C-alpha cells in the first residue's frame, strides 16, 4: 500500500477535525487556508518546472555529468525535470512500469533514469569513448 498517497488527505481531515473541535469555524477556516496554500505552492512549483521544460528540446541536458552527480534515489520525476529543465526522451512504453527516460548533453554523454511508481529507482551514465590519440593522418 502506498502511504504517500493516503497520508496527506488523512492528515488534512485530522487537522480540520482538530481545528473544529478546538476553535470552531475560525479554526477550520485557518487550517483549510493553510492546506489550500500548501496545495497552491506545490502546484506553482510543478507549473514552473513544466514551463521551463517546455522551452527546451526533449531529452537535452546541459551536462550529463552534473546531472549524474545531483541525482539521488527516491526523488520524483518532477524533481528530475526541475534539475534538467527539459522533458526526458521516454524509452519505455507509455503507462508501463518502470518508466525509463534519457537525457543527453552536447558531448553525447547521456543519463538513463528508471522510475518505479514515479520515484527514481536507479540511473546510469554513459560517456562516449574517447577519440584515438594522435589524431588522423592522411596519406600523400
Provide an overview of this structure.
There is one protein chain. The mean pLDDT is 89. It is built from 4 helices and 4 strands. With 140 residues, the chain is an alpha+beta fold. It has helices at residues 3-23, 25-54, 64-70, 77-84, and strands at residues 89-90, 99-104, 110-116, 119-126. It folds into 2 domains: 3-52; 57-126, Beta-lactamase Inhibitory Protein, Chain:B, domain 1 (2-Layer Sandwich), CATH 3.30.1450. The chain has a 4-stranded antiparallel β-sheet, covered by helices on one side. 47% of the residues lie in helices and 16% in strands.
Return the structural class.
alpha+beta
Quick one: overall form?
A: elongated
The strands making up the biggest β-sheet line up spatially as 1-2-3-4
What's the CATH first level of the largest domain? Alpha Beta
Largest sheet: 4 strands, antiparallel
What does the average pLDDT come to?
89
Total E-strand runs: 4
Which radius of gyration do the C-alpha atoms yield?
22 Å
CATH topology tier name of the largest domain: Beta-lactamase Inhibitory Protein, Chain:B, domain 1
Assign a percent range to the helix content: 40-55%
Name the helix and strand elements from N-terminus to C-terminus, one letter apiece.
HHHHEEEE
In terms of per-residue confidence, which ranges show pLDDT below 50 for 5 or more consecutive residues?
none
Multimer state: single chain
Indicate the proportion of strand residues: 15-25%
Based on the coordinates given, report the CATH architecture of the largest domain.
2-Layer Sandwich
Distance between the termini: 71 Å
How many individual helices?
4
Tally of structural domains: 2
Amino acid at each position: 500500500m502506498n502511504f504517500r498517497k493516503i497520508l496527506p488527505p488523512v492528515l488534512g481531515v485530522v487537522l480540520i477535525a482538530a481545528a473544529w473541535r478546538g476553535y470552531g469555524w475560525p479554526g477550520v477556516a485557518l487550517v483549510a487556508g493553510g492546506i489550500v496554500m500548501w496545495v497552491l505552492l506545490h502546484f506553482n512549483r510543478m507549473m514552473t518546472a513544466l514551463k521551463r521544460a517546455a522551452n527546451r528540446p526533449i531529452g537535452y541536458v546541459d551536462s550529463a555529468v552534473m546531472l549524474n552527480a545531483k541525482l539521488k534515489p527516491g526523488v520524483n520525476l518532477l524533481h528530475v525535470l526541475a534539475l534538467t529543465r527539459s522533458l526526458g526522451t521516454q524509452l519505455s512504453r507509455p503507462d508501463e512500469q518502470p518508466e525509463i527516460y534519457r537525457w543527453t548533453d552536447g558531448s553525447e554523454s547521456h543519463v538513463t533514469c528508471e522510475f518505479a511508481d514515479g520515484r527514481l529507482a536507479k540511473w546510469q551514465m554513459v560517456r562516449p569513448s574517447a577519440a584515438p590519440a594522435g589524431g588522423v593522418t592522411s596519406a600523400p
